[in-house]
Design a protein that fits this description.
The complex is a heterodimer of chains A (about 120) and B (about 150). Chain A has about 120 residues and is mainly alpha-helical. Chain A is about 80% helix and about 0% strand. Chain B has one domain. The chains are: A mainly alpha (about 120), B mainly alpha (about 150).
């Protein structure tokens, strides 16, 4: 029960971090590749963006929680369970970030979940 | 059409560099941490000594550098493409990790890991067939509003 609750918290923290990072970067605008001045401007804007900073917080919570979870649960159980985060992040992308998720993308995400779960088996 | 193709190529190139950076960072961290774990105990003093050794180990510092590069590219990719596109595409890092573990770390890679890698490859190919971006960035929304006028 304790492990299941921790996994649920970690999946939520991971997805919250991803969604906030995506939303924050959209607020910053398209980051240019080859203009140093524009790149500097985008970096300053990113480091002042509240959602970007909140995403760092959630990713830190996820990382600390993940390390803590590994102290009592097996990696071979934790890692496949964490692939749930792909599904939760994709759902959040659809309903919060208003992205269009095509059938190809859903199928691809599910294949990736299955694949990661298999790879992380002992 | 050509512009969309060019942007798609740029995003895929960016994600390829991100995947290689993350996989290289993980291999370097793994190598460094294994060396430290062999030398330090599990007590509090052992942990403190491991941390001290970690910041002095070149492979750990280099690995951390690669992971920072990965995060910067990941954030840049998210300013240009959908989260639901970037996230599964980035997961191909797992395949590179399996190949690196087999090749550089001499770890035994089971057949279920190779099957998993094939499933991830199929998933990534399926995701890459969709349009990378279905949102309009805020700066573009402002441009559209400016062009539309008051």
């Amino acid at each position: 029960m304790k492990t299941a609750l921790m996994i649920a918290i970690l999946v939520c923290a991971n997805s919250a971090g991803d969604v906030l990072l995506a939303r924050g970067m959209r607020e910053v605008g398209t980051v240019p590749f080859f203009s140093p001045r524009e790149l500097y401007r985008a970096t300053c804007k990113t480091l002042r963006n509240g959602r970007f900073l909140a995403s760092i917080f959630f990713m830190t919570v996820y990382f600390a929680g993940f390390l803590s979870l590994l102290s009592w649960a097996d990696l071979s159980f934790v890692f496949p369970a964490m692939t749930l985060a792909y599904v939760v992040s994709t759902l959040a992308a659809k309903f919060i970030l208003k992205e269009t998720i095509s059938l190809h993308r859903w199928a691809g995400t599910l294949f990736v979940c299955l694949g990661v779960a298999l790879v992380s088996r002992p | 059409m050509l512009r969309r193709w060019a942007e798609r190529t740029k995003i895929i190139a960016l994600l390829t560099v991100a995947v290689l950076s993350q996989a290289t960072g993980n291999v370097l961290l793994s190598q460094g941490m294994k060396r430290i774990a062999g030398e330090s105990g599990s007590s509090l003093v052992g942990w403190a000594s491991a941390l001290f050794q970690a910041v002095q180990t070149p492979s750990i510092l280099l690995g951390t550098g690669f992971l920072i590069v990965f995060f910067v590219i990941f954030a840049t990719a998210l300013s240009r493409a959908d989260l639901s596109f970037v996230l599964p595409a980035i997961s191909s890092e797992v395949i590179v990790n399996v190949a690196f573990a087999d090749h550089f770390l001499n770890e035994t890679v089971s057949s279920s890991r190779w099957v998993g890698s094939i499933l991830i490859s199929i998933g990534v190919v399926l995701v890459l067939q969709s349009a990378p971006r279905t949102f309009v960035a805020e700066d573009e929304q402002e441009n559209i509003a400016d062009e539309a006028g008051p």
